[in-house]
């Protein structure tokens, strides 16, 4: 039995919390619980998912208000102690706002909400998030096909930050065809210590064949393997 | 009582696609002398203090901590004394 204990944070306006829960609990048979944003502790959870959605209606800026939810203090502490945190879509925005990841997510260059499957190049395969991507079973070997669904996914950071992201292998995923104008085609990054991942595409929505791609599940399997 | 009027805009170095879209629309109306359009946010705060300096300090802190994300945005504000005490 895996030692991973997943906690899926739920903010008012989260809408991918159940997709994440379903993938972890019912597809991958993991110990998984929801964490209401007003809780002050993540309890015994050792992998935190900050899910997609529109927390607080995207008021002010995407993720700007959610980062001050009570649970986030403990999530930041968990991350600072080396604990695993994965922010997906709105969760990525929240992690950037909370300072766990560098940079920010701007409005898509097209100004349009983009909702479609995209192909990602797995740039760094030596991470706790990507170690299970060996090309076996993927729609395209060495790549992953997952959906994006966002209006603000245009990743930006200053030049020094971009250089250090590239130099330290912190760019984990790049878009094959950039859907939002993100700098350097960046789809997902991790922190310097490699325990916090943020990505705009949705692996939790692509984890069983019936939805068109199961490429996303290997991301969670990588994490599960890293905990054991 | 003080009132703070705050403007938050995308940094000059960052392309503002919303501003560009509006700019094209303005130009299509025939205003050919409109050269640059930037869109931002306007926020008003009422601050319970008698001190001009405190009003500025607290406004600046709120801007830094919440109202503006300095990775992509700049802010400016003015504070004015208003009736109330």
Describe this structure in words.
The complex is a heterodimer of chains A (about 230) and B (about 80). With about 230 residues, chain A is an alpha/beta fold. Chain A has one domain (about 5-225): Rossmann fold (3-Layer(aba) Sandwich). Chain A is built from 5 helices and 11 strands. Chain A has helices at about 15-25, 70-80, 90-95, 160-165, 215-225; strands at about 5-10, 30-35, 45-50, 85-90, 105, 115-120, 145-150, 155, 170-175, 185-190, 195-200. A 9-stranded mixed β-sheet of chain A has the order 2-1-3-4-11-10-9-6-7, sandwiched between helices. A two-stranded antiparallel sheet of chain A has the order 5-8. Chain A is globular and about 40 Å long. The mean pLDDT of chain A is about 95. Chain B has about 80 residues and is α+β, with helices and mostly antiparallel strands. Chain B has a single domain (about 1-80), classed as Mth169, Chain: A (2-Layer Sandwich), CATH 3.30.1280. Helix content of chain B is about 35%, strand content about 30%. Chain B has 2 helices and 3 strands; from the N terminus they run E-H-E-H-E. Chain B has a 3-stranded antiparallel β-sheet, covered by helices on one side. Chain B is elongated. The chains are: A alpha/beta (about 230), B alpha+beta (about 80). The interface of A and B includes residues 60, 64, 103, 111 and 181 of A.
